[in-house]
């Protein structure tokens, strides 16, 4: 059985809403490396509609040609 791992930007007081408003001052190279490592370690990603629409162009550019046919 596979694991579900949630990679979320959460404040210490539990806020997950609108990370684009509070996250940028804290997002540095170290954070980028951690997020990329977590994404690279997974074989499947699940996004909500809004997140998918934001990341769609980036995700399509990075997928190997063979995975583009799987839906």
Pick out its properties.
single chain; 71 residues; mainly alpha
Can you put this structure into words, describing what you see?
The protein is mainly α and 71 residues long. It has one domain (19-69). It has 3 helices and no strands. The chain has helices at 19-22, 29-41, 49-62. The radius of gyration is 14 Å and the shape is globular. The two termini are 21 Å apart. The mean pLDDT is 80.
Ordered list of secondary-structure elements with their pairings:
Layout: H1 19-22, H2 29-41, H3 49-62
Number of helices: 3
Number of strands: 0
Shape field: globular
What's the rounded overall pLDDT mean?
Answer: 80
| Straight-line distance between termini | 21 Å
Succession of helices and strands? HHH
Unreliable stretches covering 5 or more consecutive residues = none
Structural class: mainly alpha
Total domain modules: 1
Content of β-strand: under 5%
Short description:
With 71 residues, the protein is mostly helical.
């Amino acid at each position: 059985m596979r694991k579900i791992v949630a990679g979320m930007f959460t404040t210490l007081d539990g806020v997950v809403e609108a990370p684009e408003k509070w996250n940028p001052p804290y997002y540095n190279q170290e954070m980028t490396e951690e997020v990329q490592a977590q994404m690279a370690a997974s074989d499947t990603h699940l996004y909500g509609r809004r997140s998918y629409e934001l990341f769609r162009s980036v995700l399509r550019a990075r997928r190997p040609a063979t995975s583009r046919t799987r839906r």
